[in-house]
């Protein structure tokens, strides 16, 4: 005897080679199919009927090989330059930097949660994010938390990008100047988490750029140990605080 019940089916997997359909919901036979369902059963019946128009297994019939090749430029990264042994920081030193940075981040987080605690000189930056000259003029000033606190993600990312471009001007054998280092630290302290994909890419670019600058220091020169400190700090923070562990020393 044929059942008059209508069913909505669910998929069950008995094994890797067999897929069975078993009843999930029963729908009364007197439920009519309507273009605009007004009850739960009418809606389920409409979904069931629409489902009959599709095959159980859908396969992609497009060739994405060219697309994948074009995308390689977005995931390919330059190799991270490793430090000479005498310029490489110890894990103990790195742990101290991460702990100190965590304290700064906690302070910034408290300020962001309670604006009444903000310094009196905090003001919104009226800056075109694409105006590189304006950014560089800003970075000529002495860095203050009041310049960075409250900037949204896009502005923080853009500021870091400009700072990385400034690092392109560091001559082989030289290092980050103190003011630029302070600005970078301030932007890192205010960078929001969880990280957006764009932010992660920028942070990784910062660590690789610092590694590149460090690789041009003369390991035989005693002054190189001091010159490597700011570079080591930023590589450490990106790799160990922001969890880009493959870039860690």
Question: Strands, helices and their partners?
Answer:
Blueprint: E1 6-13, E2 19-27, H1 40-51, H2 65-75, H3 91-113, H4 132-138, H5 145-148, H6 153-167, H7 178-190, H8 197-215, H9 223-241
Antiparallel strand pairs: 1-2
Function: The SMN complex catalyzes the assembly of small nuclear ribonucleoproteins (snRNPs), the building blocks of the spliceosome, and thereby plays an important role in the splicing of cellular pre-mRNAs.
GO cellular component, one term: spliceosomal complex
Subcellular location: Cytoplasm
Overview of the structural elements:
The chain has 249 residues and is mainly α. It has two domains: 46 residues, no CATH class; 164 residues, Up-down Bundle (Methane Monooxygenase Hydroxylase, Chain G, domain 1). The protein is built from nine helices and two strands. A hairpin with a 5-residue loop joins β1 and β2. α6 packs antiparallel against α7, α6 packs parallel to α8 and α8 runs antiparallel to α9. The termini are far apart. About 3% of the residues have low confidence. Keywords: Cytoplasm, mRNA processing, mRNA splicing. This is Gem-associated protein 2. It holds the Pfam family SIP1. One of its GO terms (biological process) is spliceosomal complex assembly.
The number of distinct helices, counting runs of at least 4 residues, comes to 9
Question: End-to-end span in angstroms?
Answer: 74 Å
> Do you know the CATH architecture of the largest domain?
Up-down Bundle
Mean pLDDT: 83
What is the H/E string? EEHHHHHHHHH
What coarse outline follows from CA principal-axis ratios? elongated
The amount of helix comes to 40-55%
Radius of gyration: 29 Å
CATH topology title of the largest domain: Methane Monooxygenase Hydroxylase, Chain G, domain 1
The unreliable regions are 14-20
The number of domains: 2
The side-by-side strand order for the widest beta sheet comes to: 1-2
